[in-house]
């Protein structure tokens, strides 16, 4: 697949490296910053093109007209550059184009239709995607990651095992997780040495990150195995009043009894005070732990740290846990810090690059894919396929399909019903199939659904 990425910032660089893992992809990156472009060229197998993505001559040099996918992902402040370059790319012949934006007004149905008519196939707003992931986590306390399929017919929940978790030290085959009658199933476990697709003799350890596919009725029981209780959040503190903090506050404030935002920039505080209805906005430094304590952090049910500093977000959440706050969520953009944050007791980590990658990644695999999510704390992806009537996936029970070793079918959505998949389960045409897989297994999996 010929892919052109316009922008080698944080998100563009991450996408380049991720898409580089597929040997069938041919990547070209356009970037007006020579140093940034040279650095990415050293780290990934790309064809670098120096220049502005709004220049027609630069787009021609990148051979945009023959591309299968054009991704306009310059930094958020360059929204206009992304929109213009995406429109130009489509007019020049690119089959699919997608653009990064920084305005949720464009995501309304009517406005998305307007951009579709201009030729843009997908608009993505990384901060909005991250904010929605945070809101999902706040509604599913006790989990470190969450994903819903078909309005909750199936749900992926992720939790970390503590020393006193009921399944720590136990074999999978001795637990309900291994019972075909239960409405949930363990599909993977992540450890320091990598991601494991577990079988019957697998033994759970302290600090394991456990991935479970569940039906609605199984969520509460599945979370109990983490040793954590699910509870309702009524008091929330958000540290950082940027775009993510603003979106979370707007969508959560009417549901809560109390919501406070701590923001360093005075002008941003003034803006937030105007646009938020019930939230209390405090001008202060979220790195000042004494200040957070003075602002009643101990009384909160959850603390969300979304400043521009990964380190400050991690430390604020660690302080909150020590103060007895039940749920903490940190935005961590440094990939190498994610496992560190989790090992320090942060309940959940949000990463804009991971959150965005799944939205774009599905464009590169198959039109039989509804959604993809790149998971924090694991090098695996969750993919929701649609089974083609003539595909190999429908011709035999799952146990006889010879799935790639590093993949597992967790569940099936048939109509509006969720089904937990096991060896004897047969996939029917048009079923939506939830698969957990490591990246190198995706090409083989894709062939089973075509």
Structure description:
The protein is an alpha/beta fold and 450 residues long. The protein has four domains: 2-124, NAD(P)-binding Rossmann-like Domain (Rossmann fold, 3-Layer(aba) Sandwich); 135-224, Alpha-Beta Plaits; 234-325, NAD(P)-binding Rossmann-like Domain (Rossmann fold); 366-449, Alpha-Beta Plaits (2-Layer Sandwich). The two termini are 16 Å apart. It contains 14 helices and 22 strands. Strands 3-2-1-4-5-6 form a six-stranded parallel β-sheet, with helices on both faces. Strands 14-13-12-15-16-17 form a six-stranded parallel β-sheet, sandwiched between helices. It has a five-stranded antiparallel β-sheet with strand order 7-8-11-9-10.
Q: Helix share of residues?
A: 25-40%
Task: Give me the CATH fold name of the largest domain.
Answer: Rossmann fold
Overall number of domains: 4
Taking the sheet with the most strands, its summary is:
6 strands, parallel
Shape verdict:
globular
Uncertain segments are: none
End-to-end distance: 16 Å
Cα gyration radius (Å): 22 Å
Mean pLDDT: 89
Estimate what percentage of residues fall within beta strands: 25-35%
Q: Specify the CATH class of the largest domain.
A: Alpha Beta
């Amino acid at each position: 697949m010929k892919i052109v990425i316009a922008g080698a910032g944080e998100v563009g660089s991450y996408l380049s490296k991720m898409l580089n893992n597929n040997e069938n992809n041919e990547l070209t990156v356009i970037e007006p910053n020579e140093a940034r472009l040279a650095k990415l060229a050293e780290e990934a197998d790309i064809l670098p093109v120096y220049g502005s993505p709004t220049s027609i001559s630069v787009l021609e040099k990148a051979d945009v007209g023959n591309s299968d996918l054009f991704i306009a992902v310059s930094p958020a402040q360059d929204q206009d550059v992304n929109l213009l370059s995406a429109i130009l790319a489509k007019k020049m012949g690119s089959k699919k184009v997608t653009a990064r934006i920084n305005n949720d007004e464009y995501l309304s149905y009517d406005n998305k239709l307007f951009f579709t008519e201009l030729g843009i196939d997908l608009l993505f707003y990384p901060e909005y995607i991250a904010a929605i992931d945070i809101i999902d986590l706040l509604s599913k306390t006790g989990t470190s990651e969450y994903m819903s399929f078909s309005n909750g017919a199936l749900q992926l929940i992720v939790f970390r095992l503590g020393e006193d978790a009921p399944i720590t030290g136990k074999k999978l085959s001795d637990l309900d997780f291994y019972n075909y009658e239960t409405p949930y199933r363990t599909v993977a476990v992540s450890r320091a040495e990598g991601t494991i697709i577990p079988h019957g003799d697998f033994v759970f350890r302290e600090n394991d990150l456990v991935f479970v596919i569940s039906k609605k009725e199984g969520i509460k029981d599945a979370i109990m195995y983490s040793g954590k209780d699910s509870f309702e959040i009524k008091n929330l503190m958000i540290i950082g009043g940027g775009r993510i903090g603003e979106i979370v506050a707007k969508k959560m404030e009417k549901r809560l009894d109390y919501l406070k935002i701590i923001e360093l920039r005075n002008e941003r505080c003034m803006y937030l005070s105007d646009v938020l209805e019930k939230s209390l906005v405090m001008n202060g430094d979220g790195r000042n732990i004494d200040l957070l304590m003075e602002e009643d952090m101990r009384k909160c049910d959850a603390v969300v740290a979304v400043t521009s500093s990964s380190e400050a977000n991690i430390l604020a959440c660690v302080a909150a846990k020590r103060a007895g706050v039940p749920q903490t969520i940190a935005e961590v953009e440094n990939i190498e810090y994610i496992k560190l944050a989790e090992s320090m007791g942060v309940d959940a980590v949000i990463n804009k690059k991971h959150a965005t990658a799944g939205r774009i990644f599905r464009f590169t695999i198959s039109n039989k894919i509804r959604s993809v999510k790149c998971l924090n704390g694991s090098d695996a992806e969750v993919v929701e396929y649609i089974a083609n009537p003539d595909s190999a996936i429908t011709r035999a029970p799952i146990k006889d399909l010879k799935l790639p070793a590093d993949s597992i079918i967790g569940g099936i959505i048939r109509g509006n019903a969720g089904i937990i998949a096991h060896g004897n389960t047969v996939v029917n045409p048009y079923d939506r199939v939830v698969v957990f897989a490591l990246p190198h297994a995706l090409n083989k999996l894709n062939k089973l659904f075509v």
